[in-house]
Every structure is written in structure tokens, then in C-alpha cells.
Known about the structure:
Helix content: 40-55%
Strand order of the largest sheet: 1-2
Distance between the termini: 23 Å
Amino acid sequence: MAKNFFEKVYEFVKKIPYGYVTSYGHVATSLGSPRAARQVGWALGAMPASLSDVPWWRVINSRGYLSIRKDDPNAKNIQRSFLENEGIIVDENFVVDLKKYGWVH
DNA sequence: CCGGTGACGCGCG
DNA sequence: GCGCGCGCCACCG
């Protein structure tokens, strides 16, 4: 268990309950580095496709916006599909209401 | 060891 | 409330 930042991120994301979402900043804070929110996103970006056990789509930015890398509209659409599949209401602008679906550890 | 990178966050106008 | 700009921390070459 090297417990690198990446692995920590993966484990934390796995702990996100079904039907809820959290922000990168919250994950980073839980990992012990409140300013490392960017690394959280980077860790998810470096995730191998085989590692589908990590619900990366439940991780969004603090504003509830689906911050997919490079603003890939296709990726946003995919993430929105996953969230809606869990009963989460996603705005047409790819925005989720953290007040309602935000998960607090 | 150093520089560049990046799915972000916060402060300011 | 919205848009712009700077800063932070960890991984890779």
C-alpha cells in the first residue's frame, strides 16, 4: 500500500455513496492537502480505463460544475449520463446542486 | 534536482 | 452573480 496521492484519491472516491457527488476540494482536504484539488482531478485523469471501480463521475468542482478536462463536451455528456443514472439531477449546463447531492464526509 | 503540467479554488473588480 | 487572474501541490521526463 504505497498510499500515494493517486491511490488515496481512488480510495476516497470509491467511498462516495451512490447517488451523491463531492468536490475536488473536499477530496483534497480529506486527503490532507486542501490546496491539492488540482491533483485530485489529475489523478482521475490518469486513471486507467480498466479501473472502472472508481466512480470518478461523482467528483465535480466546488461550484457543482462538471469540470471535465479540456472541456470535452462528449466527456461531459458521458458524466451527465452516469449521474442521471444514479438519480442525480444535472442542469442543462452540466451543473449539479451540491446543496442537495453534495456528500459530506 | 528542476521545470512543466493540470478533471481546481479563491479573491477581486 | 459573473468573469478574469493568480496560486497550490503532487507526478513525470
